[in-house]
Amino acid sequence: MAFTPAKWPRKLRSQEWYGGTSRDVIYHRGWLKNQGHPDDLFDGRPIIGILNTWSDLTPCNGHLRELCEKVKAGIWEAGGFPVEVPVFSASENTFRPTAMMFRNLAAMSIEEQIRGQPIDGCVLMVGCDKTTPSLLMAAASCDLPSIVVTGGPMLNGWFQGERVGAGTHLWRFSEAVKAGEMTQGEFLDAEAAVTRSSGTCNTMGTASSMASMAEALGMALSGNAAIPAVDSRRRVMAQLSGRRIVQMVKDDLKPSDILTREAFENAIRTNGAVGGSTNTVVHLLAIAGRVGVDITLDDWDRCGRDVATIVNLQPSGTYLMEEFFYAGGLPVVLKRLGEAGKLHKDALTVSGTTMWEEVKNARNWNEDVILPADKPLREQGGIAVLKGNLAPNGAVLKPSAATPELMQHKGRAVVFEDIDDYKARINDDALDIDETCIMVLKNCGPKGYPGMSEVGNMGLPPKVLKKGIKDMIRISDARMSGTAYGTVILHTSPEAAAGGPLAVVHNGDLIEVDVANRRLHLDISDAELADRLSKWQPTHETPTGGYAWLHQQHVMGADTGADLDFLKGCRGAPVGKDSH
Questions:
Q1: CB 487 within 8 A of CB 397
Q2: Is the whole model's pTM more than 0.90, yes or no?
Q3: 400 vs 168: CA distance, rounded Å
Q4: CA 49 to chain centre
Q5: Taking 90 as the threshold, does the pLDDT of residue 568 lie above it?
């Protein structure tokens, strides 16, 4: 895609605060000088806001303060003026009821930080699952030059001679304890082995998937996604990104120049190739909504259906992000997509060049990790979008993490009205369930939980696990961790709390799942379904105030990205009026 850089030098927006001799300018400039900045730093050079999601309560991002110093070094080297700005950090590890509930709040607050502060460009310092989409959503709304710097994945975990992945083995070990295959003591011993260094999950979970999406969208420098957090090359990447954002401001290279329909289609196909998280669906839909690109679930199915999963990483495969980096990382995957005719090669990136120029010389150093095109992990690895009378607006499934034998199945519904009902009954040996049943969880969507928690990968009942069964079909309006696995159908829309058909599924109803034909069907008549829906009454809790109330009143469905309805496609003026 052709891009014409803006003329330089020119007056930047930060000069509204710092340029000149008026009383208001002296007020702004004088206060910033109390940090020890000399006069010549206010000469019109780009002021770069480093939006840092570091927090002691966001362990994935716990090293970003150190990494930020390298970004600052790059900005100084390129003639910019770096200012670090701490921003809302929605931690996946700690936030209740779920970090997803606060993704939109984070995006709102960061958007106003960008819009109301004297900065000309942004470095988005991210890592943990919701920090990447929230900052990209904010940057898309404000449309100032922006570049993503992720914190990188942690090192491989090892336990009892086995390679173990953060998240993925938490689910596996928990099920093994319930099945009597692992002791509680061994589970506790594994705790320290799984997460043994700074960084995000070392599987192709949501954090690494979103890092891959940022790179595939063109919003991060090539190679950014996979470098381990503690590798010196992660610091080099941060410094180079600091240098690059200064030139992006001079060129006026903005998110709207990069985040085109072609960029989103590249990202969707990349997600299939890497076996990425189902959570990327709601995040990319929300980012596209902010920048005004009409991407839908149908685009996810159309673009991803024929993309093979070629990255052999947990939870779909064997290896972890450390090996993915050593094998060549995402540039190799993007090159493979380009060679297969499944990449928009001329899509623009933050480097100022096209995607193909960035990846055409990439080399694969390990074909056990990044598989040959003719020997993929899964022939069809993209996100499958299922529709039918149970999910009129769609539901999603990750084929690369599912059991092939369950991709076409008809089973009896075992219904849990909410997550508390599930927790109260799942371990009861009297529960009427076997491996042929389909587990159904309601009221865990954007409005229902509230916030759409990662509870869709419901653990199986012990009575089934003890038979040696490892997977069953599970259907819900919830999400699941990108580190999770199984034949799990998620994001069922409309959700139960909004009166979707999921709300009126009864115990014993037959449900048909046909992934090949993208069908999800509740086996009752149209008349019976209409009658049940006419009698339905909501049972979920309704907040009475605060952000929880705002969220529930305005959050849209998962099928459109679960953003707030008044923010989609909304772009305000980047500079407000001075009040002094």
A1: yes
A2: yes
A3: 14
A4: 23
A5: no
